[in-house]
Amino acid sequence: MNIQNKIVVVLGAGESGVGAAILAKVKGANVFVSDFGSIKDSFQGELNEHQLDWEQRTHSMDRILEADLVIKSPGIPQKAPVMKAIREKGIKVISEIEFAGYFTTAKKVCITGSNGKTTTTMLIHHMLKKAGLKVGLAGNVGYSFAKQVALEDNEIYVLELSSFQLDDMEDFKAEIAILTNITPDHLDRYEYNMQLYVNSKFRILNNQTAGDYFIYNADDKTILAELEKRSISAQKLPFSLTQEFEQGAYTANKQLIINFNNQFTMSIHELALKGKHNTQNSLASGLAGRILDIRKDIVRESLSDFVNVEHRLEFVAKVCGIEFINDSKATNINSTWFALESMEQPTIWIVGGVDKGNDYSELVELVKEKVKAIICLGKDNQKIIDTFSGHVETIVEAGSAMEAVAYGYRLAKKDETVLLSPACASFDLFENYEDRGNQFKEAVRSL
């Protein structure tokens, strides 16, 4: 893609937007950055450092509609008025990931799925760093892909891709694509139509050829049903907790077995991450490592010494024998299902926020088994109250993390757990899930 002297407009000045603007400038474009909200001070500093032209709290439509190319942040919905105007003018719109992909020859390992994608992404990145490769971490985690392409020289990138990012992809290609699972999530963005969401996830296979790889969860019925309908060009490598494969990865007799590029085995007791879903993440990561010819001892070491990401089943503290766990990153029902399933003590569950079309009934049996009290942490908790009334004796509402933690401390006894696993987005009371998790941790530490 030649953008020399072309007008490139970047919409949204968060991590991805600022990175895209820097890359566009490096490649010789005339760049204008427009954000309808406020731009964080740190991002303003970066834009100024790279002598980029920018505006905030407005969209100057006359300037935006002069663009030869628009790079859109994934958070901006297609229905936004600015997007409507750009479409009517027929201007090409791409994502930061798509844009960066045009300017790198590095290999790309791309991970998507409703759950487990961040853990799998971080685990693979950890493995490749340990192997001594020059590796970038980007997408939904790490730093902007475009910025790294502009300013660094990496031989491989590990990218976590959300369905929103995949929706904006046309020419981008993953040399290794990983699909961890598909469960209903973000259905509000997909007209409450599960097939549209599934299609979005399968876009990770776009442009793959016979020389590329597709690693997928063979225990996921939705993925298997979709594979029946499609012809896949890439080499398929399944992973499973129950089935064995000549080419793929699985568990048998408490062993993790990877059948690719010579067989690799290790005891599942050696894995750093506990729980069935994390065994699946380890299987997918191990497969990616062996495709990339990472030495077996490095694969083994990486899977056994990895430290999980913040806000994902993160132990915060033990106060008077009560354990506090921060799983703020659980923004959908499936994530919370995994969290509750891994609880071994009676649990006080903090849940709620912005509902994305959740069906809480899927959790009822697990809640009856594991949960002794529910603390609702959101502005509108009626759906949660209606679902679990009669199944859980105590349901209370809290308007802040501090209040939720105080309730948890009061309701829990020694050798019980207070779990923040909201199953919802956080935007009603918090900036994002990190802010929610950090406020929770602060409140616990102030007990």
Provide a descriptive summary of the structure in words.
- By secondary structure, this protein is α/β, with parallel strands linked by helices.
- The chain folds into three domains: about 5-95, 3-Layer(aba) Sandwich (Rossmann fold), CATH 3.40.50; about 105-305, Mur-like, catalytic domain (UDP-N-acetylmuramoyl-L-alanine:D-glutamate ligase), CATH 3.40.1190; about 315-445, Mur ligase, C-terminal domain (Protein-Tyrosine Phosphatase, Chain A), CATH 3.90.190.20.
- Helix content is about 35%, strand content about 25%.
- It is built from 17 helices and 20 strands.
- The chain has helices spanning about 15-25, 40-50, 60-65, 80-90, 95-100, 115-130, 145-150, 165, 195-200, 220-230, 275-290, 295-305, 335-340, 365-370, 380-390, 400-410, 435-445; strands at about 5-10, 30-35, 55, 70, 90-95, 105-110, 135-140, 155-160, 175-180, 215, 235-240, 250, 255-260, 265, 315-320, 320-325, 345-350, 370-375, 395-400, 415-420.
- It has a nine-stranded mixed sheet with strand order 7-8-6-9-10-11-12-13-14, covered by helices on one side.
- Helix 6 (about 115-130) crosses helix 11 (about 275-290), helix 11 runs antiparallel to helix 12 (about 295-305) and helix 16 crosses helix 17 (about 435-445).
- The protein is globular.
- The N and C termini lie far apart (about 55 Å).
- Keywords: ATP-binding, Cell cycle, Cell division, Cell shape, Cell wall biogenesis/degradation, Cytoplasm, Ligase, Nucleotide-binding, Peptidoglycan synthesis.
- Belongs to the MurCDEF family.
- One of its GO terms (cellular component) is cytoplasm.
